Amino acid sequence: MTTSSFHTLRYYLSEHPSIVGFRWSHTQSWGSTWSFLFTSIALYISAAVVLHVLLLILFRHRRPLPLGPLPAAHSLCMALISATIFAGTVLSAAAEIRDSRWLWRRSRTTPFQWLLCFPLGTRPSGRVFFWSYIYYLSRFLHALRSFNAIIRYRKLSFFKLFNHSISIFMSFLWLEFSQSFQVLAILLTTLVYSVVYGYRFWTAIGLPSACFPFVVNCQIVLLSCNLVCHFGVLLLHFIKGGCNGIGAWIFNSVLNGAILFLFLNFYVKRYLRKIKAVDGGCLVAEKMEMVKEKDI
């Protein structure tokens, strides 16, 4: 990439007036009200349940229904959006660190501490909160994957509905309460999403899949990194005298713990014995085919 191309990319991802001047507002930001949040989640769950029931009535057989290029298109779209959010968040965080370094010297705050723990009084405005808002909106597109499994397999997964609903809810809390840790959480999640959805697009167009449970391994890495970072936030909260949005962070941690418990329960009970029983690499991928449908 040439220098001029990089400057152009940096401008549109971190220096554009719409990004620099962003402000989370109930009157100016679409989808920023509590009523919208709860209504959209309720409609999502209701639509999934109604679709599942209708398909069970109309199609009594369990053969998968073809969806054509839609799963591949959704995976490609999510991979590109995740990669864009990741790049924009990296450039925006670097710009915020550059512009605020002089202020942090008074409180002896390092850039890494800022990524984990926002100073008290931080307001949801500026570059990183713009990309946090884009990430929040992308959760609605991510939730559409549930309908893929419902239509193709007539299978309604409580874990998927819970995971997607909580993902929307938590990303809303990040903006509403300027919650600490959200920058790192967005970076970790979008990095993993871009890889996972790129892999799903790869397999959806008929290319060979990995000889190991690729999606599950990525999910384990993401959950492990989130767990380590949560301990870092808690430590800095007591050392630095408080992190902004700590109440929302505690609620976020409880929800993340519930997701981790559900995932481990699913993985251990239903698939661990299958993995141990299989000898040979590529047979594992076939045994884990349903795991690939599991959303992260």
Would you give an account of this structure?
Its main location: membrane. It is a multi-pass membrane protein. It comes from Rehmannia glutinosa. Helices cover 75% and strands 0% of the residues. With 296 residues, it is mainly alpha-helical. The chain is built from 14 helices and no strands. The longest helix has 38 residues. The C terminus is likely disordered.
How many helices does DSSP assign?
14
Structural classification: mainly alpha
Q: Evaluate the radius of gyration.
A: 21 Å
Residue share in β-strands: under 5%
Low-confidence parts lasting 5 or more residues at pLDDT below 50? 279-294
Helix content: over 70%
Helix and strand succession? HHHHHHHHHHHHHH
Main sheet makeup: none
Question: Which of globular, elongated, flat, extended, rod-shaped describes the shape?
Answer: globular
Write down the overall mean pLDDT.
84
Spatial separation of the terminal alpha carbons: 32 Å
- Looking at the chains present, what oligomeric state does this protein adopt? single chain
The number of E-state strands comes to 0
